[in-house]
Each structure stands twice: as C-alpha cells, then as structure tokens.
Design a protein that fits this description.
Chain lengths: ~150, ~400
C-alpha cells in the first residue's frame, strides 16, 4: 500500500477540495450580506466650521462651558478664567461618557469613572488611556463663537 | 402597549404611562421589581448549583445552558434600561456599549452594530427595543426549554457521594399544589414590594425613577452608576490604570473579566473530583472566593463610608478601608461557618480574595498590585497542595 503522504491528487481529494471551497463560498455569500446589513451606513450631517447658536452662547457665558454638535461629534467649548476659548472632544477617551468643565478646579472632569483632564486634554488622573482630541474655536468680531475644526498637532 | 420607541416619544410615552394611564405605575413597578428579583434568584440558583456541584456529569450542559440564560437575563436588564430614554439610561448605555470597542479586530464593527452608529442615538433605541422584546425572548424561551428538558430527563442531581436523588412526591396533586402555593407566596411578595416601593428600594443601582429626559449634549452627572448587578464591573473599570502591560486599561479589564467568566463557564469540566462523585472543597472555595471578590467591588462602588466630596483621593482611601472591613467581616463569617458546620479545610481562594481586600483596603496598595500578590500566592498554594496530595497518593499506592 502507498503511504498517505506521497499520494498523488486523486479524484476524491479533488472533489473534497471543490466541496470545501464551495462550502466556504456559500457561507461567505450568506454571511456577508448579514454582516453588512447589521452595520448601519455612516450618517451624513453638516460638516465644517460651525457657529454657536444664541442659546449655546448664553450657556457658555453662564456655565463656562457648553457642548455642541460638530461634524457628527460632540465638542466641549470652554471659556476659562482668563476668558480664553478652548475646544475639546466631549467624549471621554475611557468609555465614552460626556465630560464637563469644572470652573472651580479649572479641569475637565468625567463623572463616570472620576477622570480629570487639563484644559489641553491631557489626562491628569483616572483611567482614560488617551488625551482628549483638541479643536480650534475662535471668537468673531461680533462676539459669536465658531468651531473651526480639529487640531492636528499638539 | 403604551410604549413608543423613538427619540421624541420613548420618554414621553413612559411619562404618560406612569402618570396618566390607570395603574400604569403599578405595571411598571411590577415589571422593574420582577426584573431585579429575577436576577437575584438566578444569582442564588447559580451559586447553590455551584456549591452543591449539581453540574457534575452528565449535567454539564445544563450548567452551560443556565449560564447562557443568566447572560441573556443580564442582556434583558441592559437593553431594557435604555428604553425609557432618560439621562441615566443614556450614559449607562454609552459606557456599557463602549466597552465592546476593546474587543480585538471586530470591536469597531460590534460597536456600530450594537449602537446602530458610532454613538448612542435613536437608532440604538430601536435596536435595543428589538433585542428586548423579540430577539432575547426568543432565545430565552428556546434555552429554557432545553434547560428544563435536561432537568426532566436527568432528574435532580443527587447529593455528592450518593447514587440517586431521594425520591420526591407524586407530581399531581401534591407537588403541583405545593408549587402553586410557592408561586402565590412569591407573587404576593412581588405585589407588596411593587405597591409600597414603586420606584425601588432606593439603593443606588436599584431604583427606577424616570428622572429627566436624555440629552446627548449634556455632560454625565455626578454620582452616575449602573444597575447593582453591573456595579462590580463598573468599579473594576475604575481600578485599571490607563495603560498596563502594553494594553489600554479597559482592554485589559475586558480580558480579565472574559477570562474569569470563561473559567466559570467550564467549571463542570474543570472539577474532576466532583465528576468522580467525590467532595471537591476546592471548587466550593472558588465559589466563595468569587463571592468575596464581587462583594468588595460592589460595596466600593456604592461609596460606602465616603467623605464629601466622594471622589476626592482622601475619601476613596476611606471608602476602600471601610469596604475592606465589611468584606473581611463577611469573609470571617463565611470561613467560620464552613470550618465549623461543614468541616471544610480548603480556604486558598477565599483566603486569597480576603488578602487582596486587606492589602488594598487596609495597607493601601493599589487594587491591581494587591490582586497580583494575592493571585500569585494563591497559585503557589494550589500547586503545593496538589503536589502534596499527589505524593500522599503515591505513598499510599506504593505501600501494600
Ligand atoms: S468614561 Fe470617562 S472616566 Fe470612564
């Protein structure tokens, strides 16, 4: 008898291969649509510079911070003690809670697992693994505030 | 019947239900109470199965189906939580679903599938509604069928060391009537609780005041916490530093939790002693160790003994110490009862869990350092113990 290893391809092994390939192809053609179906399409919304509305501005003046929608994200706009404008991603890099500005301590705080960031978004304490991404916010001549975009460099 | 999922309707329909619909508040209260009581009874059932080793062959799959159903029940709780679309629901779901992004490779896809987009929105609400009222119930009904079929076919597990379970009574009418009585009793307890405490007992993580409507543009509020059965996990997330061992904190946390839950799932195959119908004190001890571990985290998540402000480092120290004392007290009772009443002499896991608590809460080591020390000691102790047992067996076997 020939040993198993040095067998030449036989009709049977060829059919096995064919069967295997077609099973994989069949599974793929069944599962792929399901996978695609489950993941929703990206939502399109307004992108680019966004001007704060009057209500948002009043909130900014009153609380020292406001969270506004910007290009499908939520951005925290802060007015610090020196009346400077700062803008950061409002989504905590830990588990995605929404952060807030604590004027008294001049830090950004996430209530969910008690994390603190400085106003440049760096983690001061708590479990978040990454700093908060920063945005550019500008004060206009007429007193309005515009979020221009994400800052790329540190 | 009154509930309408949707960003503009979910919260409003819930408010209508609880304030306008006759006895709507009662229906909601009964629903919430039964959900919590269901989880409590499942926890009790699971631990008693664990301690009595009722998972011994041939009942391994009964354990596994029960395990999956427990997971589904937590899924019910989690998905139902979002549906009123109030503030608490919104953040609980944000954090809870965010954890899946730590899953390697498929994380991002899973997150989008779960939320119906990158963030928690009305799309998430539709998906969770479907989960809560269609998908999970169908799965659950199927599994409970299998679970009961197994129990019916294989009968109750006999106590360790015995061949057959003691014969029960006749099903009809004796058992049926007794069951009915028990059912009535539980139903009355449920009703009394639902009527007198319509918004829950007021323990954090066990209350369901509707509160304010969710607003994605508002920050998370101070003192936000998940339901009580997720508190341990929430606290664990807090204990992990940003980076450790080349992984991000949440990733490592997910890994640890997955490992522990994985071990829990395959206990019937790990416990060789019980499989031979011999007592397996090590696995009882493992169960008790798990209870100690979960208790400490839960107490800590409740901020027991906290100072004002609760989140300050000083307060966190005091909380750790207070909760450590409570947990050590509980542990001492457990050990004493097991020693005296059940004549147990196997305490490595409970001991390690208590040592962990003591090192962290009383000596002030970080949670993870304390855990690593206790874990290492436990491993050494188990290995020594197993080797010693082998040696004893070998000498006994060798002597004529
Ligand atoms: S989500 Fe912000 S600290 Fe955990």
């Amino acid at each position: 008898m020939r040993s198993e290893t040095d067998q030449k391809p036989t009709r049977r092994s060829f059919l096995d291969l064919l069967l295997g390939v077609s099973v994989v192809a069949w599974l793929g053609s069944v599962l792929y649509p399901v996978f695609r179906y489950l993941k929703p399409l990206p939502q399109s919304g307004p992108v680019g510079p966004t001007r704060l509305t009057a209500t948002e501005l009043t909130k900014l003046e009153k609380d020292g911070f406001v969270i506004v929608p910007f290009s499908g994200k939520r951005v925290l706009v802060v007015q610090n003690a020196a009346h400077q404008l700062l803008a950061l991603d409002a989504k905590c890099t830990h588990e995605g809670c929404t952060v807030q500005y604590l004027a008294g301590e001049s830090v950004i705080w996430c209530a969910c697992h008690n994390a603190r960031f400085d106003l440049d978004g760096r983690v001061l304490s708590g479990p978040p693994p990454r700093p908060l991404p920063r945005y550019t916010a500008e004060r206009q001549e007429d007193g309005g505030v515009v979020i221009v975009g994400e800052r790329t460099s540190a | 019947m009154y509930y309408q999922p949707g960003e503009a309707t979910a919260y409003e329909s819930m408010r209508y239900l609880t304030t306008k619909v006759p006895f709507g508040w009662l229906m909601r209260s009964v629903h919430c109470w039964s959900a919590h009581l269901m989880i409590i009874s499942l926890v009790a059932h699971m631990f008693s199965t664990m301690m009595l080793k009722a998972y011994r062959p041939p009942r391994e799959l009964t354990w596994v189906t029960g395990y999956i159903m427990f997971a589904l029940t937590l899924g019910f709780g989690f998905s139902g939580y979002l549906l009123p679309w109030n503030k608490l629901a919104f953040f609980a779901t944000s954090v809870g679903t965010d954890l899946v992004k730590s899953v390697p490779v498929a994380g991002d896809w899973l997150l989008h599938v779960l939320r119906g987009g990158p963030d928690v929105t009305a799309n998430t609400l539709y998906r969770f509604f479907a989960l809560h009222v269609v998908i999970l119930p169908l799965l659950f009904v199927g599994l409970i069928g299998i679970h009961l079929l197994f129990v019916q076919r294989q009968g109750m597990a006999p106590p360790i060391g015995q061949k057959v379970a003691p014969r029960g009574m006749k099903f009809f009418p004796s058992f049926a009537l007794r069951d009915l009585l028990l059912w009535l009793f539980c139903f009355m307890i449920l009703l009394v609780l639902a009527v007198f405490l319509p918004y829950g007992p007021g323990i954090p993580g066990m209350e369901w005041e509707l509160g304010e409507k969710a607003n994605p543009l508002e920050p998370a509020f101070p003192g936000i916490k998940p339901e009580w059965y997720f508190l341990w996990e929430y606290q664990l997330l807090k204990e992990f530093p940003p980076h450790l061992l080349g992984l991000e904190g949440p990733q490592l946390c997910l890994l640890v939790v997955t490992l522990l839950l994985g071990i829990w799932a395959i206990i019937p195959w790990l416990d060789r002693q019980a499989a031979r119908n011999e007592p397996s004190p090590s696995f009882s001890d493992f169960g008790w160790g798990a209870i100690v571990f979960l208790t400490f985290l839960t107490l800590k998540a409740w901020d027991i003994g906290g100072l004002q402000p609760v989140d300050s480092p000083a307060s966190i120290k005091v909380i750790s110490r207070t909760c450590a004392w409570w947990t050590l007290g509980l542990g001492a009772v457990i050990v004493a009862v097991r020693w005296v009443v059940y004549k147990h002499r196997w305490f490595i896991f409970t001991g390690a869990a208590l040592l962990h608590v003591a090192l962290h809460g009383l000596l002030g080591l970080s949670y993870l350092t304390a855990g690593a020390i206790a874990g290492l000691l436990a491993v050494i102790a188990v290995v020594t113990r197993v080797l010693a047992a082998r040696r004893v067996k070998a000498t006994v076997g060798a002597s004529p």
